[in-house]
Structure formats: structure tokens, C-alpha cells
User: What shape does this take?
Amino acid sequence: PVGRGSEAFHPSRPEVPALLAELGLADRHIGTTGVTTAIYSQDRLHALPVGTVNGIPTSAASMAGLVDEATCDRIATEADRPWHWRAGSDPALGELVADRFGEQVLARSVDPLVTGVYGGSARGIGIRSAVPAVASALDAGATSMTDAARGVVQGGADGPVFGAIDGGYRVLLDELVSRSDATWVRAAVHRIAAADPGWALSDDSGRTRHADAVVLAVPAPQAAALLADVAPQAAAAAARIPVASAAVLAMAVAPDLEFPAQSGVLVATGERLHAKAITLSTRKWGTRGDAELLRLSFGRFGDDIARATSDHDLTAWAVDDLAAVFGVDVDPIEVLVHRWIEALPQYAPGHGELTARIRDAMPPTLAIAGNYLDGVGVPACIGAAGRAAAAVVAATATN
Assistant: This one.
């Protein structure tokens, strides 16, 4: 078994551990082996810089070897240069990083981390979404980007960065399905119309079903289409959220290949690799068996790789990238490709205001959930789902 989507969560956030405990699954919470991640830049591997916040440096020393000497000098003097910050603003993280630290820090340190989360460059992601703690530190009076990042690092919690579920998210989903006692209908809803009371849902089989309340847990483009008739202002706001597509390629290879003791590799912007990230799943989670498991992800915001590239070509790219990065000749035992089309929202500057506008325009007993609202990670998605469920339950009880 191998995960085809998000494989990990941040245990520092409470949503996943709390849900696992509620479902009696707390003992299925596992951590990583503690091996580190690397960055592939300038055709070689570099250790992931320490003492950074999503790649934002706290000192020149943290970037030594990854960027050139002139950029290190620029980092060292960033706090001495004039700084103008408007509290509450949400500029693009990439523009700030390039302006304060230079293009190399953006391409080699910040972008690899941001691309791994959003599938897009930090130039298109607002600072409040990408690094909310840094934005808060700036609002509170930090005198530079370095100062803000240093304060976040010093105030950060200790403990593992990533957690997972033994057996994968399927364990959690199966338990939720079992507890829900729901009637499941495999159909694509293509229209929602107001009924008196509730909602009429028309599906692709030509059938219309009635619902007292509806939660739309679909990507932003589909939400925009379904809300067009019943909540046009919310639909218009949802349609403004840019989305990227990605392809995840999982691969099983012989267990005796010489991979390093690393959890994976993030790829800097502008490199000649096809993949944007490589996960050495077996090394990361400590699982052992008759094969080594890897995952490679392809596709960035603005390209058509996930939609247009064949499984055969993605596999060939994966083999070539593994040879370039690790110097190993891979003959895959098995390959699985899954395509996430228009599933990675880009949290552009002002994203928080946009999602507030969507929610404010929703009618009672109709709510939204999904990774385009409060965060793309699983904890944030659980939080958005709980908020949506609570809203429709309360509205239904009132009505």
C-alpha cells in the first residue's frame, strides 16, 4: 500500500491527533525516522538549511554553500537596510524574499519548500498563507525579515516536524465512514438548486435528490460551478482562486539500491530535473519489506505536465531524475501514477479576504470545505470540515 496524495501532517497542529483520539486511533499515529531532507541545486545535493522558516534565513551562516558569497553578504546586512512594513498587508512572499535576500535565496531555499506545498512559486503565494508566523511577527514590530524569522525560530516548539498514520489515511477514512452510518451514492452532482425547504441535487444519472443541508467538499473550480446559481457572489470569489495540477508517481524498486539516509529531496527552481520533489518513503518512515518505496511529484502552477504527460514518459523522467540525483540505475518493480487535476490552490496575496468573502456569501444550510480555504494541509482541511459541519447542523436546527 502507498499513499497517492498527502502522506504526512504537522503534529504541532491539534486537528489530526485530536481526531485520531476521538476515533480510538491514537495508537496509529507514527513519526518519521528523523532523517533529514536535502535540496537539489546547481546539479548537486545540499543539506536543508537549518534555522530557517520555510526557507527564510535567520543568518548568512544558514545559507552557506547553498548560495554564493555575495548573497550571504546580502543576508548578513538585510537587517541594516531600510524596512517598510504595513501591518495587516499580505504581499507575495517571493517578492519580499527576492527584494530582501536576493534571487538565489528565493530559487534555492524558499521556492523548493513552497513548491512542495502549493505546486507553485513563492512569487504567487501571500506571506500570510505561506508563513503566517513571520507575518504576525512583522505586524508585532519585527524590524526586518531576518528579525521576524529569527523570532519565529526561537519561539518554535520542539518535536517531530511530520507525523503520519500507520496504514495510511485509508485507516482514518474507513473509520470515519464506519462511524458516520451514511448512505453512500456514487454519482457526480452537477447542479444544486434551492428547494423549499433545503436543496435539490441533480446528478449525472438524471436523478434529483433532496437534502436538508449540503457541504461542498470539492476543489475550488468545481465549487464555483456548483454555486453559480445558488450563491453567485461566493461562486465568483471561488473562481478567482488559481489552481495547479500535479502528478504523483509512486515506485517500488529493489531494496538493495544505494539511496542515502534522507527523507527526500526538494528541487530548486531552474534545475534540469523534471520532478519537483522526491520522497524516499522507506527511509522517511522506517518501513521495511521486499522493496524500497519512492514517490516523485511532477507539475507546477502554469504548466500542463500532470494533464498531458503519459505514464510512460513520467516513469522515464523518474528513472532519469533518480540517476541524476542519486547516481542509481533504477529498474522499477512496480509504478503507480495518480493525477491531481486542478487540485492544488494557490494562496495568492489577499487569500484570507477572498475566502472570508466566499463564506459570507453562502446561504444557510449550505457550506464549503476543502484545501482552498484555510490551508492545504490535512489538519487545516479537518478544521475547515468541522467548521462546515457545525455550520449546517446549527442552521438546520434553526430552520
Observations:
- The radius of gyration is 22 Å.
- The first strand starts at residue 29 and ends at 31.
- The CA atoms of residues 58 and 292 lie 36 Å apart.
